[in-house]
């Protein structure tokens, strides 16, 4: 497998995390100085030069649980504190965001374009802050990404893509925003772009000198597809879907999940927002909607697996008394390299003056 | 050009197939695919268009290595499933219930690997050498190819994998032969040529005279085009090469011995 997949994974997941945090800070009208400190602390920790150097060294892919540990520490690198449940859901949201971008990339080098767009957007976020001190770090990572992946041939890029997709395989969590805007089907599956284009079925014949002899078009049954079943979200992959100023997208009417066919009437599909509203006894307020973005409900155990690297320790606890299922991540035993990388994560003391409790409490208390 | 399709079936499947090259093969009346570290099998007859998920059996194995290719090989009435992983090659019986052989990745396969890749095995095919010995050939991430003899008397693979002469310098993506493409149905005109392809888009044609370290020699090759070959088939005088970019190319094998390979289209 590719040993250059980790940088893309961490950078893209980290940028998605910053998108979500930035949106929450704005929505709660957190004072500018506090917002600036939270974002700068996270970005500075994530793109610290020593850590980035270790991250971009060729290495085996981490497990999901090991990767989550990285982001657990990143999220706590500032004054904010997240409960286990909030962190689980934040991570789920980050994972589904990057999974969607990977799966819907139609060209191999689009993975790199997505990464560059993530970084450019983060840099513009930082440059809009009163304290722009972390902007050079973002710029350095942009240059490193360009240098590392430039000149990679299609075979290497495909191996890279296979390695990344293996990480996300069978990871399926319903996200309210994705359901509402047609990125996910009602079953939580990412809706892919159409595999068909004008060239599929073209048969070209050459003569013995290599000159074009003839070109025919075979009519394939696989071409008889409804384009609406393969809806493509108009926002560029890697852009900030959580930006409130973005025009909301209304997906075209769809008969049902493109893979399994029409939705069976006896099955009920609840969106994350619906589930959150049920738990809270009401919904529709901005707080409930935004909290639902972070509080992504984990699907039933038989619907997704995090066994991506053979970890069988994931346990989804039973729902009891309205509590949300918690998802336990257990790290792989072979953590030596991870320990070294984690050691280079310079997580400063962000706890002074901060109340305990989760992100939601912090926002209330700010 | 006439082209007919019978029906297109969309069948949901759990667990999901990995996005590796050629992740579907047929063995012993069943279809098989790889899910990350496990082979999965289901009956062809269970495929339907009703939307009901297919009943899939996950193959139990003590090995949990990442799978890079899954190939069924046939020799006369015998059939085996060859799973290439990042630890080497596993050979299973046709019911995929008994693991018959485990071939660790040869040390030579791990050397010379670009720092961007962890070593792995990928691609497998059966070929019959000129002396009548069936041989399993598999590829590795270093571009190396290895062959292993099949003993018809014992009904199993014997010895240790022997390297083919060095040629490919990028990871092997596909291996095939006319005998592989005909699923073990021997005819006199099949020949003993082996075709291999790599990540750089190069294709090589080999002649097998016997099993072992000196059993194969390179006949000719097609220069790397940059577009990897992800699947290979060999049929009589044609090599069929499917490339990552979406093109399927046909190359003529007529007069290959010393004459090169001509592209037909």
UniProtKB/TrEMBL annotation, chain A:
List cellular component terms (GO). Answer: cytoplasm; plasma membrane
Name the domain of life. Eukaryota
A Pfam family hit: Oscp1
What protein does this entry describe? Answer: OSCP1 protein
Biological source species: Gonium pectorale (Green alga)
Automatic annotation (TrEMBL), chain B:
Sequence ranges assigned to domain WD repeat-containing protein 54 beta-propeller in this UniProt record: 28-252
Query: Out of the domains of life, which is the source?
Result: Eukaryota
Coiled-coil positions = none
Tell me the protein's name: WD repeat-containing protein 54 beta-propeller domain-containing protein
Specify the species.
Answer: Gonium pectorale (Green alga)
Starting at the broadest rank, the lineage of the source organism is: Eukaryota, Viridiplantae, Chlorophyta, core chlorophytes, Chlorophyceae
